[in-house]
Design the sequence.
């Protein structure tokens, strides 16, 4: 298997404790055995010489399905105890500590959320929707495959604390429609077992129309008894055949996908019907909230896509079965580089929620640009709305994976930091995201202080830099419609996606305050008042919430237009500086890894210049107001 | 074969001359036999009862390869005489006359140009680049096929006077690269024979890199002796194997295609090398002039794509071998609904030219909109430049075909009128194009006067209507970049294609007069002065040649902006009226044909409204100047 070990590429350390020479203990579960193996291999890679006696680390496996672990100092040396799954996480935590050169201290940990997962948008034909790191390693030529990467991927997930993985695209098409039907039970079981060895459960995306399309029934109405029976029987067979199945992820009534709306049923009626079918098997339903009108007439000024999800789901709060989790994207629209937090995440009172991040950098540079999303994820988790803080209200966390079968898994080497940070934050959302960026850098590139400082600095600044040279102040879109890569300021303007800025020669943006679409009011009175008023709205979201003239004065006295010009010039210069800083690491980073990143930086700089010049020139043409500093704009 | 007979669907006529009951004469060539068969079948379809004696039409085949025919009244009845090819054209001319209810009169005809051809952009996999009428009938699954449509297509071509057909896309890829190599000689010979029966010669598009890619040579340098030998030997074999081959069509140094530029050679050196190879076989080279920089930086204000073809080819005038024809598109850019005539067509003095029209409605509604191009073609043929009139200077005429394997051949039933008119104008460019539109209508729909009046009126107005609701005053583009269908006013603005309008809130267009890129000067002093001055420039080309403020006064006193608003409202209303006029033909046109066109009109009206509202709203947002008549614009 030609794949990078990523952050598990342990290097010899000079300062290992003596007990790393020997690991003992009775482990019985597959996970316990995996923990033991990882520790022995890991300690050896860290430079520990195996010893037959003397100090040792003892594993003590406890019964149960829990995920916590405890490291205690007993008189004969340290003891790592916990159920099998906990031991896996404990083992990787210990290895991480040692690899970072930190002394393990007694204590215990358990994950904050019981479900911490990655969603793959992998298609059965092996392609990946919005994938930027090669092809699928779960599917090839129409079939699921359990290949060399499956177990390796499970290791990577477990090593950062993740425990779930949805194999297939939420847009279920082609052979993926038959994953439910028994046709691929053998393959799924094999994948499930490989994942389960590291405590990772397998999930499937399913089509709401399956009873109709695969089951041969005349309807997929969730209240139809035959439909309910079909789902129950399908689940009875499937969960027996694939014991490690966690449940289903469902994109219903969204962008042309089938759903309960077709039968006049609510989202709750749809989700609960599936929940009932998986419940006897301990399964759960992840029901996506990405429901909006994707055939909007651009002439329609009243419909506001940002409102759609809350308007659809808030009235149903309390109506969902207890094994349904509503899966809301982090923002109300669609993974733009800057959006407010989805009101669903702070307003639902009686419904379990799972937030969906997107590590696949669909709108954030497609893994050709560096864009570390750790701070962005942390902003969402730490966000406090009327009913509390997001991280305290969530039942689970997931993200669209950024992986594929590229050697480095994530296309851009530095994109692996997103996978790493995501896992660490799922385990403990109170972590300082910046610390995880530093951890990842040291684990990946070793202890060189210049490398650590440079790479960490690049990661920490990268999202703001990307935001500066691309889409200003939360306005979103402005990218090329089919690819979502590169600038096209008017690309979505007359299209059906509900994503408009309606720029004229005087003003830009959609008014979402109380005088506009009223979207700001979805946050409740207090927060709604902050967002709804342009003077109190956070500046980075100003054009998400407000339609403003170009001469609007920002808090620092600059005009809105000048601020946008400045951001683009500064962001682009910062991208150039990051590329240069990387160049200075030549000889300090392994040459293949150095070159891979260097090539990506060249493309990032090219693309950043294009973004800068296109967005600025477009605004210049609209307004004919020159840059105050006389920098070049193009007529 | 499930294909419409198009205009060859003869209906019984009440007024047939008696001699249509019997056709006699000695014919020996395949073409002479085809003529005899067509006459007998055609007369029968027109209602003539076969008779064993009595008045008759006599065919008199003469030797030779000529294409003229003569109808003379001898004492025993009419005689149609000419070589075999001429008899085919004479036969179809006679049938047309009779089908139209006109009395055939003695006389003779010969085509104006020796080569009158259709270029197919068919790919070996069966797809058609910019095809809007289904898939290829020349290729299926990577192979050329001689199927039921081949002969039928040759009939249709011959019936309107065409005599050449290039089978494959000028962008030669995939298996089409092997058409040269002997791999498909059998298939090509079969197709060639089927076409030749109706006097149609077969042509192939070839890749200039063939010696390198298929021949295994280290270069394709046209001055390399081994390359020259490879082409000679390849042609010796190919022309023997495919006796009806006319020659090659070549897209070189164009949009990424290989060409002589790669070896520092001129277009003439490239073309002449191929000309030498085909010359022993009577072959000719059609060398496309579509050479321009397709990776232009949009920031570059100096490069003007409109200049590129003339700048490249004019200095080479006189250097091309006598069996090379330079193939220039009708306009200097790329088949936009309105362009000036290419200066290559009126300035080259010592080089043979073939003009290329595009029946495939890439930029003119993709055979979902009616856009009859007869008048547009006629404008080009009748255009007079410093060295004479285009139609008098041409050596040949060709067009990109609008056909495919759809039942009706052309996607839109009314698009067949473009094929018909094109053939008729190739035969005789002095014909009144409007008369051909009327002919086509009567041949297609029969003698109903309301149908004739309605359809002819639709055809005659259709191009101006399309122009009105789409792209104003020759400015071009503004369509969706990948598909070239539907509006996207800024879609090409920051791209690499050299197709910009550079609209600001005050002005729009590229200045191509002497103060600008100087393109107007390519027409010579007199015509250049007309185009180069905004006050004398034809208004329909105003924005092709000039950059103007929105308040520029048109000759009728309206502002430029108001003219554009008006055109869009009027053009869209006219499209709606055309659709309504068609609806009124229900019951008068065969119901399947009626419905096919009705469905297309619905799409045309939808799309016309979109064009109207997008272009107008885009200009309104740019300027905030409302429509003087208060019609709806969208912010």
Sequence:
């Amino acid at each position: 298997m030609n794949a990078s070990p990523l952050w598990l590429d342990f290097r010899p350390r000079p300062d290992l404790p003596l007990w790393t020479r020997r690991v003992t203990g009775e482990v019985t579960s597959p996970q316990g055995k995996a923990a033991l193996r990882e520790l022995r291999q890991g300690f050896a890679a860290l430079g520990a010489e195996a010893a037959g006696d003397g100090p040792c680390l003892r594993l003590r496996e406890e019964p149960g399905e829990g995920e916590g672990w405890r490291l205690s100092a007993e008189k004969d040396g340290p003891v790592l105890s916990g159920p099998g799954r906990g031991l896996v996480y404990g083992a990787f935590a210990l290895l991480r500590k040692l690899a970072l050169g930190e002394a393990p201290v007694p204590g215990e940990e358990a994950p904050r959320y019981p479900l911490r997962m990655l969603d793959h948008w992998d298609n059965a034909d092996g392609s990946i929707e919005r994938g930027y790191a090669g092809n699928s390693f779960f599917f090839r030529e129409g079939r699921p495959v359990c290949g060399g990467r499956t177990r390796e991927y499970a290791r990577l997930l477990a090593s950062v604390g993740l425990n779930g993985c949805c194999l297939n695209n939420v847009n279920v098409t082609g052979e993926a429609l038959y994953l439910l039907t028994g046709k691929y039970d053998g393959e799924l079981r094999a994948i499930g077992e490989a994942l389960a060895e590291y405590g990772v459960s397998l999930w499937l995306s399913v089509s709401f129309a399956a009873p109709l399309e695969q089951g041969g029934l005349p309807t997929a109405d969730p209240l139809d008894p035959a439909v309910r029976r079909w789902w129950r029987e399908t689940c009875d067979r499937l969960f027996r055949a694939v014991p490690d199945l966690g449940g289903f992820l469902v994109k219903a009534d969204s962008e042309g996908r089938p759903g309960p709306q077709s039968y006049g049923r609510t989202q709750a009626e749809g989700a609960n019907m599936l929940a009932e079918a998986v419940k006897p098997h301990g399964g759960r339903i992840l029901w996506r909230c990405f429901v909006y009108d994707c055939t909007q007439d651009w002439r329609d000024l009243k419909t506001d896509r940002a409102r759609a999800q809350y308007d659809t789901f808030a009235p149903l709060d309390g109506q969902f079965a207890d094994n349904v989790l509503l899966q809301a994207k982090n923002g109300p629209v669609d993974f733009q580089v800057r959006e407010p937090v989805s009101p669903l995440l702070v307003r639902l009172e009686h419904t379990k929620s799972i937030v969906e991040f997107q590590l696949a950098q669909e709108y954030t540079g497609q893994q050709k640009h560096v864009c570390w999303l750790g701070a962005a994820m942390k902003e969402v988790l730490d966000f406090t709305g009327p009913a509390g803080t997001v991280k305290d209200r969530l039942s689970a966390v997931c993200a669209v994976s950024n992986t594929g079968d590229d050697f480095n898994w994530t296309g851009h080497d530095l994109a692996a930091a997103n996978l790493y940070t995501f896992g660490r934050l799922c385990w403990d959302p109170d972590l300082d995201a910046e610390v995880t960026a530093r951890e990842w850098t040291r684990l990946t590139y070793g202890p060189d202080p210049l490398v650590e400082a440079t790479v960490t600095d690049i990661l920490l600044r990268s999202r703001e830099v990307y935001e500066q040279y691309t889409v200003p102040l939360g306005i979103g879109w402005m990218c090329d419609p089919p690819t979502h890569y590169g600038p096209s300021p008017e690309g979505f303007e007359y299209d059906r996606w509900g994503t408009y800025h309606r720029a004229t020669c005087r003003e830009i943006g959609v008014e979402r305050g109380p005088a506009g679409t009223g979207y700001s009011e979805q946050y409740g009175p207090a927060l709604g008042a902050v967002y709804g008023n342009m003077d109190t709205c956070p500046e980075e979201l100003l054009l998400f919430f407000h339609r403003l003239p170009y001469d609007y004065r920002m808090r620092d006295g600059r005009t809105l237009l000048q601020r946008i010009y400045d951001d683009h010039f500064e962001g682009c210069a910062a991208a150039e500086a990051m590329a240069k800083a990387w160049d200075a690491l030549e000889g300090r980073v392994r040459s293949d890894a150095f070159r891979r990143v260097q090539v990506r930086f060249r493309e990032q700089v090219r693309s950043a210049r294009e973004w800068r010049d296109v967005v600025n020139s477009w605004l210049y043409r609209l307004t004919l107001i020159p840059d105050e500093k006389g920098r070049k704009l193009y007529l």
